[in-house]
Structure formats: structure tokens, C-alpha cells
Amino acid sequence: MKDLVAKINTEFETFKTESESLTEKGVKAAGARARKSTLELEKLLKEFRKVSIEESKK
């Protein structure tokens, strides 16, 4: 579970960096990287939800 949370935090930092590059600096390629990051975050958050439910049943 700790590894999963670490992956989520890392991916969120990536999203934050790329979205700031897009909005503040106007780097269009950063928008694509930010969107890719959101897809990865979606997968990780779904996995977290699954693991969290399993842990609560123990």
C-alpha cells in the first residue's frame, strides 16, 4: 500500500509540474504530458480504492 501511495504522489507531482508548464509558460507539449499523467493517476487511484477496500475487510 505504501508503494502505491508513493506512486500516486510521484505521478501527481509530474502532473503538477507539467500543468504549470502549460499554463504559466505556454509549453504545448506539457499539455500532452499532463493529460497522460491524469490517465495514469486514474489507474493508480482505482487501484488504491481496490486495495483500500480489501484492507478494510481484514
Automatic annotation (TrEMBL):
Signal peptide: none annotated. Pfam families: Hc1. GO terms for molecular function: DNA binding; structural constituent of chromatin. InterPro entries: Hc1 (IPR010886). Belongs to the histone H1/H5 family. HCT subfamily. Might have a role analogous to that of eukaryotic histone proteins. This is Histone H1-like protein Hc1. It comes from Flavobacterium xinjiangense.
